[in-house]
Design a protein that fits this description.
globular; alpha/beta; 30% helix; six-stranded parallel beta sheet; 2 domains
Length: 289
């Protein structure tokens, strides 16, 4: 099975180079090494002597730039818990990165981090609105049939992934969450109705994208207009429709040379579940390797 681009690599370097990085905040990449790195790739520098010194960096142009690891960083009440989450927050908060793709195991914080950063952007007025979307597919072989009601009522049962995160962020009952959401320009849109839309000055979060094929990913991405940012989330190991991994839109996009070389794209695979030991156990047993 073909290896997928993770957006993260570990490089062993001389301790003096790490010292220089912490002093100057960035270091130039040797000309002969530039072709080996991709734009917005996250690089963990480790001391080649085996000491504990290390640094988290991101490729920006022809440089490695040091990530600002503020231990007091708290976005909408959420703090990063591991190095991949630090990278995710870095990409989600950077307005110059227009496309963020977060993949990885269930419970690794993809949706929570994205939602927390979305409300942070709204507070700062970086975008006029946030749109949450996902495809209306059900788990497993048992179809619920046609759901009653209008579009909003039909889509509401599919919003549990977002609502659970809202409850965690706001620590409120559902009625209070509705009141809070009314204070922001937040919209929920079924993926099936996204064709023809044009999102201007919008932060679009698309969750459960692991089953989208290439044409569906094309439809999603081409909706984005000026001043907007799109966040694409998915766990390629939980493809309910069992579409081949290599045929998914996420795999095609993440592994595209054009995307990897683009200064407006960051792709990160989160590898550690932070949901709890039960979720971690089931993921380790049942997810395909």
């Amino acid at each position: 099975m073909a290896e997928s681009y993770t957006g993260v690599r570990v490089v062993e370097v001389r301790p003096e180079l790490i010292d220089q990085l912490y002093k100057e905040k960035h270091i130039d990449i040797d000309f002969d090494q530039r072709r080996k790195f991709y734009q917005n790739e996250y690089v963990v520098l480790k001391d080649i002597t085996g000491a504990s010194q290390s640094a988290l960096t991101r490729v920006t142009g022809s440089r490695l730039s040091l990530l600002k690891l503020d231990k007091d960083l708290c976005i909408s009440g959420v703090k990063p818990r591991n190095k991949e989450q630090w990278m995710a927050f870095d990409a989600l908060l950077d307005e110059s990165i227009k496309v963020v793709v977060l993949t990885g195991t269930a419970g690794s914080g993809k949706t929570l981090a994205s939602t927390a950063c979305a409300f942070h952007h709204l507070e700062k007025k970086h975008y006029k609105r946030v749109v949450f979307t996902r495809i209306m597919t059900q788990v497993g072989k048992h179809d619920l049939g046609i759901l009653p009601g209008d579009v909003d009522e039909k889509f509401n049962p599919y919003l549990k992934n977002y609502m659970c995160n809202f409850e965690l962020l706001f620590d409120k009952k559902k009625s209070s969450i509705d009141d809070i959401l009314q204070q922001y320009d937040v919209e929920f849109l079924p993926f099936q109705l996204i064709r023809g839309a044009s999102f201007i000055n919008t932060l679009l979060i698309a969750d459960e994208c692991q089953t989208l094929d290439v044409l569906e990913m094309l439809t999603l991405g081409t909706r984005m207009s000026e001043g907007s940012k799109i966040v694409i989330l998915g766990d390629l190991k939980q493809r309910d429709e069992k579409i081949a991994r290599e045929k998914t839109g996420i795999f095609r996009f993440v592994n595209s040379e054009q995307a990897k070389q683009s200064s407006i794209v960051a792709s990160i695979e989160l590898i550690k579940s932070e949901r709890g030991e039960t979720a971690s156990l089931f993921a380790s047993i049942f997810e395909e390797q």
